[in-house]
Each structure stands twice: as C-alpha cells, then as structure tokens.
Amino acid sequence: MDKILILDFGSQYTQLIGRRVRELGVYSEIIPGDSSISEAALKDAVGIILSGSPFSAYDTQAPAPDSSLYDSRLPILGICYGIQRMTLDSGGAVERLPEREYGRRAVRLRAAGAENPLFAGVEGRFVSWMSHGDSILKPGEGWSVIAESEGGIPAALVHEGGKRWGVQFHPEVSHCEFGQRILGNFVMGICKARQGWSMEAYLEQEAALIRSKIGSQPALLLISGGVDSTVAGAFLLKTLDPAQVYLLYIDTGLMRKAESDEVMANLSSLGARHLHKVDAEAVFLAALKGQEDPEKKRRIIGDLFISIQEQEVERLGIPKAFLVQGTLYTDLIESGKGVGKKAQVIKSHHNVRSPLVEKKRAEGRVIEPLDRLYKDEVRALGRLLGLPEAIVGRHPFPGPGLGVRILGELSKEKCDILREADAVYISELRARGLYDKIWQAFCVLLPIRSVGVAGDERKYGYVAALRAVKSTDGMTADVYPFDPEDLIAISSAITNKVPAVGRVVYDISSKPPATIEWE
User: Looking at residues 49-66, what average pLDDT do you find?
Assistant: First the structure.
C-alpha cells in the first residue's frame, strides 16, 4: 500500500506525525533521520516528512539527513527542525530567537500561501502550535516565505521547484488549528496517497508476526489490569492457542481500591486457561522504602516485576516463555526509545528502560504487540477484539501504579490514603456523569502537609492534587474545564470521607509543557 516515509530526528512528536497520517487511512513508516534513502525504504513511498528535533539545526552534533534525501523526486514536508535543516542544506541561515516561540501562536498566510495547495481550505489566519527557539533568518536558495507568525517570523515556506514545503509549527499536535487539514493536504492532495491502512489490517499483520516469532512456545504476559495489558491479553488469546498463553498478575500493593478483584474477574472473562496472581505488596514496599527519586522508583518497580516474573516462570515450568508486554508508542517515546539515536528521555517507563527488560529485549524474547499504537488505537483494537466497553473505556493507569502518584517516599499508609481519595474522586465523577467525558482522571498525594481546621481542632493533613484531562492519544492533553461547583463538591467529599486529607488542589496544566502523570 502507499506509504508516507517519516524521517525521525529525535522529536517527541515524530510518532504523533505517524499517528496523524494513519488517521488519514494512509500507512506511515518511521526511519532514523540520517538514514540513507534506499530503494527498500522508498518502496511504496509517495511522500517524505522530516520531523522536529530537540537539537538546533546549526549544532555540530545535530542530526542531518543523508544527501540521498535531496535526490528523491518525492514531495517533502519539513516540520520545525525539518524545514530549518532543509534551509541550511540549501544555503540559508538559521538563528536563535531572542524569545522562544512556544505554545499557541497565530499564523497569517501571505497571498502566495493562501493559493498554495498545502493550505487549501485553511483560513488566512489561524492558531498554530509552536515549540522552537530558532528561526529562519534567510530562506535557502529557491525557497520563499508563504506564511508568518507574530513579528513577521517565517512560519511556512515553499520551494520554487514545487516539490518541497516546510512549516515552522507542528500541525500534528491537536492544539494546532487546521493541523490535520494541512497534513491531509500534503498526504492526500500533494502526494496523492491512497488509503489502505486500518486497525483490521494492523491486527492481521501483527498476528502473523507474533505467530511466526513465538510458534508453539509459551508466552507470558504481565498484567497490570489497565486497558493496555488487558487488550494485549485478549490479542494473545485470539492470536495463539490459549493453552500456550500465561497471564500473570502481580499485586504490587500499588493498585487502586478493589482493583485486584476487578482485574482477576476481567481476565477470567477473556477465557484464559492459565491465570496466576502473586501477592507482592510487602516485597515492593520494602524495596521502595526511602526512595524519593521518580526515576529510581520506576526502575525498582520495573526490575521487581521482571524478577518476580522470572521466579514464576520457573515455578510454572515455562523457562523458555516469551515475555509479552502491553507497551505503547507513548511509553517508548517518553522513555527515549524513538527511532534512531537522538530521542530524549522524558520519563522512564518501567516496561521499557528496566535493565532486565532491556536484556530480554536484546535477546529477542520480548513481544510488544501494541508498540506501534496510541491509547485511542488500543481502545479501538480492544473493541475489534470484542472486549466490553467497561474494560476498553477505563481511564489509563500507569504500570508503576500509585508508585508514581505518591510524590516522594512511599508507605502503606500513604497508599491507603491515596486509594481512598482516588476512589471518592472517581465515584463523584461517575455520579455526576463526567467520567466518560474525561480522558484520564486521578488523584496525586503530595509530599507536604498543610494546616487546617476540623471542628474546633487544628488539623495537619495531607494535600491531594486532582488531575483531569481531555486527550485522544496521550501525546497532548488539555485540562478538563470543570464547573467550579463540581470541583468544590468533589473537594468537600474527599476531605469529609478521607480524614487524612486536609486540602485539595486542582492541576490546570496542559501537556505540553507538563506530562499527564506527575512523575
């Protein structure tokens, strides 16, 4: 099928570009930005997109495309760093801006821009999403500016040859007005790509890959109880003989209230023949005692998962089992495991950067059937596999559980407090008909206490932060705009029902610049 080739220069948004192209029904393939554009890479390609990057294009260590890129006759779209790189490579100049352009910024099309096919159907002035500290001082040879942001800063350029375009903003980010239309104009209009990608096609392709790799050997899936691991479990049971699928649920003591019972009930309903539960609360809390650094906590949790899994593998008599994980695209991206060598670590996901997981991955013993999908796509896959909405519609829950929602050192007391506060919060959302309007909501227990009053007595209670966001794929998110009366009522319910909490605050940060989870 037709495909769009994406060159990754280490941007956190590279996979999101691929995601947006898929939304158009067109297959996308991501390769390192400095790759040679070989015949194999170009097979079925109808266009090329250059990603952004955390580097400045003029840095000596900055990734650069292979010269073979410019030999291609395919249409090319450079995004942010991508257009800056093409500018330098064609004799132009890029410089540091006095003030970084970040967040929502207005873009105005010049007359040539309004007539350009890249902006067909786009208003003459729209709100873009910027994320860069450099700007194009002088366009390269043959390039001209067709749109600008405030202050006359170049925001879009076109090459007179008609096969190359560049935008300084990020059309792939959902905050960008007309972003998907602009990408669609490039992919469908300029590149003439034919639609051929679907979730059904992904399921068929991935199932064939898993069968060829695992064969008749056993496969062990670590279940966290969230949407991702549950969908991965359903995927395995549909793809392989259920007799060779082992589902292992490790109760870390870091789960939400009554979650372990719910998880076991859900897994039983999938028709699993081998379903095992390990009570490891004491082990996890002992290992996390005294730990405050979030990265260390994630690594400890990840290593314990694998070491307990290895013990269970021996006990179950399946030492040659493949390890299956519900790893998503976003997990890999934030953990610095994007394509190529220039990806940045935002936070280490335990199922990605744990040394033991890395070792097994190097041995070729790790299977991750969801690692090219985003959360909304995982939900779509779950529905395709026949999972009930009660499972696929659940809010995301991190693998490390409450371990990254209790800031600072953990203890059983803090886990119990957060479990109760979070249960009250979610219960209130459901009662008010808000749960399904929110992509993810949860409580965070802060490592501080504040003075309050309970009755006529002084109270020194914990502070709980509420988080609620709207999103589609987890790569970007906006804060949920609660009615103040709902927030007040929810806060009151938490402080009344959870005496250890004396104060409640609401996190109004979007992603970016924040992440959805606090750690």
Answer: 92
332, 480, 497: which is closest to 420 by C-alpha? Answer: 497
Phi and psi at 256, nearest 5°, equal -75, 170
- Mean pLDDT across the stretch 201-226? 90
**pTM metric for this prediction:** 0.68
CA dist 375 to 19, 204, 320, 378, 480, Å?
Answer: 11, 19, 30, 5, 18
Q: Give the span between the Cα atoms of 10 and 53, in whole angstroms.
A: 5
Q: What is the CA radius of gyration of the chain?
A: 25
User: Is residue 421 predicted with pLDDT exceeding 90?
Assistant: yes
* Residue with token string 């040539």: 112
Q: How far apart are CA 388 and CA 278, in angstroms?
A: 26
CATH pick for 199-392 out of 3.30.450.20, 3.40.50.620, 3.40.50.980, 3.30.2170.10: 3.40.50.620
Asked if pLDDT for residue 354 goes beyond 70, the answer is no
CATH architecture of 405-506: 2-Layer Sandwich (3.30)
Same CATH topology for 3-190 and 199-392? yes
CATH code that applies to domain 3-190: 3.40.50.880
Residues 6+ positions from 443 with CB-CB distance below 8 Å:
405, 418, 421, 422, 425, 464, 465, 466, 467, 494
Cβ contact 440:395 at 8 Å? yes
Query: Are 128 and 149 a contacting pair, CB within 8 Å?
Result: yes
CB 441 within 8 A of CB 256: no
Which residues are known to be catalytic? 80, 170, 172
Condensed to tens digits (0 to 9), the pLDDT of residues 306-327 reads: 889 888 888 989 988 898 988 8
Domain ranges of the chain: 3-190, 199-392, 405-506
pLDDT at position 431 is 97
Residue where the block lists tokens 């007595």: 457
